[in-house]
Design a protein that fits this description.
With 381 residues, the chain is α/β, with parallel strands linked by helices. The protein is built from 14 helices and 14 strands. The relative contact order is 0.17.
């Protein structure tokens, strides 16, 4: 059957019909009073979502644009930074930081394992001359399904006093609690095609006053990603460049849906789906890739037994038109990933679990049909 694809990947994620309809409106002038009203409303909604009184600027671009903007607007050439790397996106921020001439000390963990906050603590406490200007980590490492302890790492950064806490929250914001002000986060980056329940195209950078003060001294090259014009025009309910007008329509609708559900309910829903996905895969007899207790609420990474993960994904796509995510880099063929981020319901997750069970049975690799669904249902009932 055509046009029946179900996305169970970490992005793009499913988009509600309400959001699609809003996005389908005829464009309006981006300097009009009508559009300024939308910008004002979404600015308020974004502060609510980020749990902050600080500015959240909107860029037409991807989550990578948001993270790059956060780095180049707050740091200067030669600044020393600590960069956590325990997956593909941690590795990406190392590359970005090095490409701008920063002095990068990489704090690594094996893929599938969380970053160790104590290593950050030791590095920060030993920096008596306050040479470390920033700490860059990925909160939810999408490539492995690991949720790093951002709260604890940020606590150590705040104790340092000088370093900025720069966080990739692309697949954690809108999926779990990320209270920017309470945790003392200085830069929070995210993207529209994740927990926001929108198509790709917008990215968001929230900055603390400490980060904005640092931006006054930043000498790294920037033009389109210079956040000062964004902040200035946001105060006037506008944008320094031509924004993605129709995506703003979608943003307003999506954030209204999130406000109606409430932050606690959103976080609890994602936690339930994580628990159900993990329990179902264990019941089937498959192993989880992320370290126990550190699974992301956005995605569950699974190690299939006795089969190439890409073969399994292809069969599920062909038979049931359900798209699961594959492994990246050296994990290609070794894991598959079940996305449960954003506009995902219990029905969606149960359908994906059933498709995995049925496909494994068809391939002669599952003699316990229904065990995964039963395990999930105990959590979702």
């Amino acid at each position: 059957m055509k046009d029946k694809l179900t996305l169970m990947i970490p992005g793009p994620t499913p988009v509600p019909e309400t959001v699609l309809k809003a996005m389908g409106r005829h464009p309006i002038g981006h300097r009009s009073g009508e559009f300024q009203t939308i910008v004002k409303r979404t600015n308020e909604q974004l502060r609510w979502l980020h749990q902050t009184s600080n500015d959240v600027v909107v860029i037409t671009g991807s989550g990578t644009a948001a993270m790059e903007a956060g780095i180049i607007n707050t740091l200067s050439y030669g600044d020393k930074v600590l960069c956590g790397s325990n997956g593909k996106f941690g590795e990406r921020w190392v590359k970005v930081a090095k490409s701008y001439g920063l002095d990068v000390e990489v704090i690594k963990a094996e893929w599938g394992q969380p970053l160790d906050p104590d290593i950050f603590k030791q590095a920060l406490e030993s920096d008596t001359s306050k040479e470390i200007k920033g700490v860059i980590i990925t909160h939810s490492e999408t490539s492995t399904g690991v949720l790093n302890d951002l709260e604890k790492i940020s606590k150590y950064v705040n104790s340092h006093g000088t370093a900025l806490m720069i966080a990739d929250c692309v697949t954690s914001l809108g999926a779990c609690n990320v209270p920017m002000d309470l945790w003392g986060l200085d830069v929070v980056a995210s993207g529209s095609q994740k927990g926001y329940m929108m198509p790709p195209g917008l990215s968001f950078v929230a900055m603390s006053e400490k980060a904005w003060k640092a931006s006054d001294k930043s000498n790294l090259p920037k033009f389109y990603l210079d956040l000062k014009p964004y902040r200035k025009t946001a105060a006037q309910n506008s944008n320094p460049f031509t924004p993605a007008v129709n995506l703003y329509f979608a943003l307003e609708a999506a954030l209204a849906m999130m406000e109606e559900e409430g932050l606690d309910a959103i976080f609890n829903r994602h936690a339930r789906h994580r628990a159900a996905a993990q329990a179902s895969m264990k019941a089937i007899g498959l192993s989880l890739y992320a370290a126990d207790g550190f699974g992301s609420p956005a995605i569950t990474s699974v190690v299939p037994n006795n089969i190439d993960a890409e073969v399994l994904r292809k069969e599920i796509k062909n038979r049931y038109d359900i798209l699961l995510a594959g492994g990246q880099d050296h994990l290609k063929g070794k894991i598959f990933r079940i996305g449960h981020l954003g506009f995902v319901s219990d029905r969606d997750l149960l359908t994906a679990i059933a498709s995995i069970e049925a496909t494994l049975q068809t391939l002669g690799l599952n003699n316990n049909m229904g065990a995964g669904l039963a395990a999930a249902q105990k959590i979702l009932h």
